What does this fold into?
Amino acid sequence: MINRQLTPATSIITHLPFIVPERGRLGNGVPVYLVEGGTEDIVRVELLFLAGSYHQHKPLVTYSAANLLKAGTIGKTSREISEMLDFYGAHLQVDAQKDLVSVSVYVLKKYLEPVLGMVQEIVVGPSYPQNELDILLKNQKHQHIVNSSKVAYLARLYFGEQLFGPKHPYGYRLRKKDFDKISRGDLLAFHKQWIHPGNLNIIASGKLPENITSMLEKFFGNNQWARPGQEPPEPVYTAMTNGTKKLLIQKDEALQSAIRMGKRTINRSHTHHQRLMIANALLGGFFGSRLMKNIRQDKGFTYGINSAVVSLVRDGYFFVGTQVGVEVCQAAIEQIYQEIRKLRTEPAGDEELMTLKNYLSGSFLRSFDGPFAQADRFKEILVFGISPDYYDNFLLELKNTTPESVMETAGKYLHEDGLIEVVAGKRQEVQ
Amino acid sequence: MVRFEKLVLGNGLRVIVHRDISTPIAAVNVLYDAGARDEDPGRTGFAHLFEHLMFEGSVNIPDFDTRLQDAGGENNAFTTNDITNYYDTLPAQNLETAFWLESDRMLGLAFSEQKLEVQKNVVVEEFRQSYLNQPYGDVWMLLRPMAYQKHPYRWPTIGKDISHIRDASLADVKHFFHKFYHPANAILSVSGNVEPDQVFRMAEKWFGDIPAGEPYIRNLPVEPAQTAQRRLRVEREVPFDQIFMAFHTGKRNDNDFFATDLLSDVLSNGSSSRLVQHLVKEKRLFSEVNAYITGSMDRGLFVLTGKLHEETSMEAAEQALFDELRTLKDEPVGDRELQKIKNKAEASHIFSESNVMAKAVNLAYFELLGDAGLLNQQTSFYFEQTPDALQKTARSLFEPERASVLQYHSVKTNTSV
It folds into this structure.
């Protein structure tokens, strides 16, 4: 009989298999990064434009301009474009974020060339047909209205506004009426200003064909794809919370309340960012975190709770998010405060810290698994202009983490003073 | 192509290994042949509640998650109407930790009243978060009992009623464990940077001495053929109307599964698909519309869902969906259209093979269906389908008298946002 009390031996991760991509430049100056790898004949090509909703003059312009790239060009209808992409089994993923617009295509290697040709066509010359814009806005408005009956959505929306202020594009709270104010002209202007080779990086990953460079050159390197005559100035905004720390979005029929608490903090480009990620992980960054143990596993208040540090290019913030039964909402908030306070006042136990370190190094290893994941990790440092040794440094930082260093980091960046609290649902004072 | 090796242990546990040296990770998957369909009608939601308890400590190991995290691993699980499935991913060199943990909880759980109470609360909150406190969250609680009158697919995995969770007792938990959680009722699959022979040795070492258990003979009520249309109209405080339609399909292992799946793709896989082009873009009846199959092991459902625009009447919405189904019955799907959806099926299959965890989950699932090797034949089964086969299948499925139609009406709420 084997002794089941005995833990099998394990070894820790000492090295990350991060592949620094092969770099090149197209004839028009567009930087290209190649991440070769994988077992299947599949490829992803990502066009990364460094402008997002931060740069728009009206809400929803970035979103609409990005999502309607595939809605028609001078020569092709929306239907012809989707027929073609679907026929090759290609998956086009368009992501309009706060700081960037990403257009990715996932495709079998054997179909890469015709599919890239189509991607070029839609990215360079979208016609933004009025009827397609009408359909998109109407359907998205519908979705927004449905989402607005969900407590988690409301909490997220109002939290952003509380955090950055109503005038800041990072914090703008979307409203129904915003869907009625967008015109074709807004999209064409956004496209002209921001979706051009001067603002583009290309990351290709997977089992790349031998001629990948010449293929990218052919489609994205030629000079017919014009840059705007003058680079538009970078907009400048100042984050300003409006002074209300506690906000309740009342929903009388709610069975659960969504809680979102947090504050602005440093982002990925700061030297202490990795330290902060580690401290946050202990608080609420994984299933074994203190918040999860206390509020789900010990008290059964919730199905899940987490905390995260979010890096935006021009700012950053920390938040705790959960949904709890309305009757325990106040108790849950008090427990969250208590856990945040404990992070800077009570040292982590040796076992607790060891588990955290082992888990994080394994989780880090998983996040590099496969060429697409490698490309994603590279993208994170590219967008923030960080050097590639960032990831090796993480293991070192993790190794050097002590109970004291966690407390120090928490005291500096995760102090409970000045936290913003947003509750959507019902909030009852405890008896 | 996912190459694999297979071994059956003396106690009946099936072990499947796939080696992929391109990754530093290993994925370990344990599938138990027990789902919500195996529950007592008076104690529904139990398979899923039990999934939660599987993380609350076993006979020799009080804390599953922490021990896995100590090895740099992570895990999760899901419960369906057919199966309960657990998976762990960890650095390949620490593979044995997953064997230690998974085998101990197959051997026995550390049952306690207190842990049961907490997890009952967690599941009640999950019930509220996913079903009760969500707009349209109760749709499957309405649609399942319409489509199924006898078969246990008539309740969702979360359970028929929240009281079934609240009333679960420790005796129920123990009974469920002994009935379903034993080697002959499970499949262990491993994929990643591993040596098959070493995995088989580890399997023998950690799982080999677990008693075989009483075989579970599944004997579920058969759902009678539907002969008249079923209709339900409900009113809820939601912003817009929605419509749901369901038709009975065959079983996952029936020959017409592939044609049935492709029919749902013709209707709504991709933006060039029929429902999107005709009903969202041209007629603008819906903001979103979908068709999919449940693909369950017993007779499943072909489901259509539509989110109506404010000015669309429920009658027009229903008519439009029936018209699309009629076209599938009346006219063969075009060759190019069929080729398109086959190509999509091929691409999504190949993409799923780039993920170690997906490979482990899929190998176990196809082994349950009869043979792990079926995984590698899926694409060719789709490619064999013809316009004629699809039309024939459409004719057998889409009879109006075999439909269950749920009209979900909005009564206005105040949305000021």
